[in-house]
Amino acid sequence: VNGVSLTVVNSKPKSFQVAIIPFTWEVTNFHQIKKGTIVNIEFDILGKYIAKIVKQILVKQKKQDEGR
Fold first, then answer.
1. Residue 19 is part of which domain span?
2. CA spacing 20 to 30 A to 49: which of 56, 57, 59, 66?
3. For residue 5, which of 49, 55, 44, 60 has the smallest C-alpha distance?
4. Spatial CB neighbours of 39, under 8 Å, sequence gap ≥ 6
């Protein structure tokens, strides 16, 4: 969010919550953000790659299990 990597602590289909440590709160503009403020959200590309690989492994495993 706004160029800062954060840890998601809760996620729902249309929202999510993150944990912000005090240092990050102080040195970023997070303390100025209000509900409804537009922010920049970027997804971790490494996380996307891992999710894709895990999905491929699970699909392959399911096909192997169905073949038994």
1. 7-66
2. 66
3. 44
4. 1, 2, 33
Query: Which two tokens mark 36?
Result: 């409804």
pLDDT digits (tens, 9 = 90+) for 13-23: 998 898 999 99
Total number of domains in the chain: 1
pTM for the predicted model, two decimal places: 0.49
Only one residue has tokens 């990597």, namely 5
* 10, β-bridge pairs: 17
DSSP assignment of 13-58, as one string? TTEEEEE--HHHHHHSSGGG--TT--------HHHHHHHHHHHHHH
